[in-house]
Amino acid sequence: MHVRMEKRAKLLERGDQAYPVGVGRTHTLEDIRAKFPALEADTSTGEIVGVAGRVVFVRNTGKLCFATLQSGSGTRLQAMLSLANVGEEALADWKALVDLGDHVFVHGEIISSKRGELSVMADSWQMASKALRPLPVLHAELSEEMRVRRRYVDLIVRDTAREQVRKRSAIVKALRDTLHGEDYIELETPILQLIHGGAAARPFHTHLNAFDQPMTLRIALELYLKRAVVGGMDKVFELGRIFRNEGVDSTHSPEFTMLELYEAYGDQFSMARVMQRMILAAADAVGSRTIATERGEINLDGEWAWLPVYQGLGDAVGQEITPETTAVELRSIAAARGVKVEAGWDAEKLVIELFGEIVEPTLIQPTFVCDYPPSAQPLARPHRDKPRLIEAWDLVIDGKETGTAFSELIDPVIQRERLTQQSLAAAAGDPEAMQLDEDFLRALEYGAPPMGGIGLGVDRLVMLFTGVGIREAILFPLMKPE
């Protein structure tokens, strides 16, 4: 860095710029590659261009210097600087001032070298931005810590890192395009909220000085989107960041991206069809409806299975389990299977946890896990046909929960009872329990139409299609301070 700082100072001392406001670029590197895809060796085109890029390779050999310029997308093009074309002073400056990582501007003729390499034979050059830190060696493997903590370096040196960003963008675009094509309206709802709700999760707390008011960051998108449906917006969605002050591991981040949508007169079955269309569109956007994983190949085509929670757990442990199965019986199953459970958990909570530990990891193909007990989702409606169950499903792919959906609870009386139970749990010390949201209940009391709703973890979907952990699925994940 000391040597590079001296080179920066030398540029400034003689009146040149180390960081000009712009350069005379006429073409991108991609433009030139597209226009001359197969130029014969040792050919001159007569076309004069100005190009710019980051120097990722340099070879200075006497009267002829070579450099490889790289664009932001990773496209590369050779630059050649000869004594005959740029002159003695410019060539000496190039050798003395240019390092790997610098952005440079090169003006000259498009040619093909004697070895057939598409190049710009420079007649002049200019520093576009002097890099003060050296790049890692391009062919060396960066540690995951370096890749995640210094993502900007990762993007410079690894093609796969840039491809990961492009795939995520394509997946998000496919989700949006699917919903826009089905006449959903995209909304933006508050991130700062007075009351945390819409999920069972521990919120981040903050303070609004203007009102001297405690606030939380949202843990879900749900409650404001439902208010919009009450107001007559029949098909709505939001794709945005939510925040949960919980653990950090290979599949969880405190800050992550969710897609939630709500549709008047939808239910859990119509939502399953919407979910399938969105995920197939995302698969098509990144290239394939089959996904190779460590546990086998996932095929997204065809019918997706439905698996009731109690049936799935019963089949896995070899005995009938129903909503009448007692907590004592479930604790004995947990002990036999080595599943850790807490003393205060009731039968419903035990079923949910046992299913998550024993059954869920085995579900590799897309499976709608359905017929949950009510405590699993306090915002879902009672099942139309099955007592003591709710109309809700979780979509499990590759052994991981990817999304969820409900036939939404719209009865304000039952909803008040459920939220009251949640608020009592919160008062008793449960940091994940929802608070009683009087304004949300008031909205329901104006009359919400029957509706279906979906929550889809965008980062989980990116992980599924790209095979990376959540720290690489998120472009700039939260990290412990260095």
UniProtKB/TrEMBL annotation:
Give me any GO biological process, just one.
Answer: lysyl-tRNA aminoacylation
Q: Which GO terms describe its cellular component?
A: cytosol
Query: Which species is listed as the source?
Result: Arthrobacter wenxiniae
**What reaction gets catalysed by this protein?**
tRNA(Lys) + L-lysine + ATP = L-lysyl-tRNA(Lys) + AMP + diphosphate
Q: Which CDD domains match?
A: LysRS_N
Which keywords accompany this UniProt record?
Aminoacyl-tRNA synthetase, ATP-binding, Cytoplasm, Ligase, Magnesium, Metal-binding, Nucleotide-binding, Protein biosynthesis
Q: What are the binding positions for Mg(2+) 2 in this chain?
A: E401
| Classification via InterPro entries | Aa-tRNA-synt_II, aa-tRNA-synth_II, aa-tRNA-synth_II/BPL/LPL, Lys-tRNA-ligase_II, Lys-tRNA-ligase_II_N, Lys-tRNA-synth_II_C, NA-bd_OB-fold, NA-bd_OB_tRNA
Q: What is this protein called?
A: Lysine--tRNA ligase
Top-level EC class as recorded in UniProt: ligase
Q: Which cofactor does it need?
A: Mg(2+)
One GO term in the molecular function aspect is: ATP binding
The family assignment reads: Belongs to the class-II aminoacyl-tRNA synthetase family.
Signal peptide stretch: none
